[in-house]
Design brief:
The chain has three helices and four strands. By secondary structure, the protein is α+β, with helices and mostly antiparallel strands. A four-stranded antiparallel sheet has the order 2-3-1-4. It is elongated.
Length: about 100
């Protein structure tokens, strides 16, 4: 199981507002909800699942701004792929909370 943090920034849109793009990208996550877990944050989205599935979803997400008029898209991803034990978003948060 892997966890990916993804930030997608459409460029060349003619506006500084990105909410419409974020909403359209979010639709990809909703369509994949049976295969992945996700958590939107104010600055990025965290997705959890099998690595191949996550990378396929990120690829779909990356295409959305182009499909809606963006001339350039900058996508940043961070992958946490731990193989010595099963890790989840909730488990990672619980681990820190236990230490507080």
């Amino acid at each position: 199981m892997a966890i990916i943090q993804v930030t997608i920034v459409p460029l060349g849109t003619g506006s500084t507002s990105l909410g419409e793009y974020v909403a359209k990208v979010h639709q990809i996550l909703l369509q994949a909800e049976d295969r992945i877990k996700f958590q939107m944050t104010p600055m990025s989205t965290i997705i959890e699942g099998e690595l191949d599935e996550l990378l396929a979803v990120v690829r779909q997400m990356h295409e959305v701004p182009f499909e809606h008029g963006a001339m350039r898209v900058s996508t940043s991803i961070t992958i946490d792929d731990r193989r010595d034990k099963h890790g989840t978003m909730e488990q990672k948060l619980r681990s820190v909370e236990e230490k507080l």
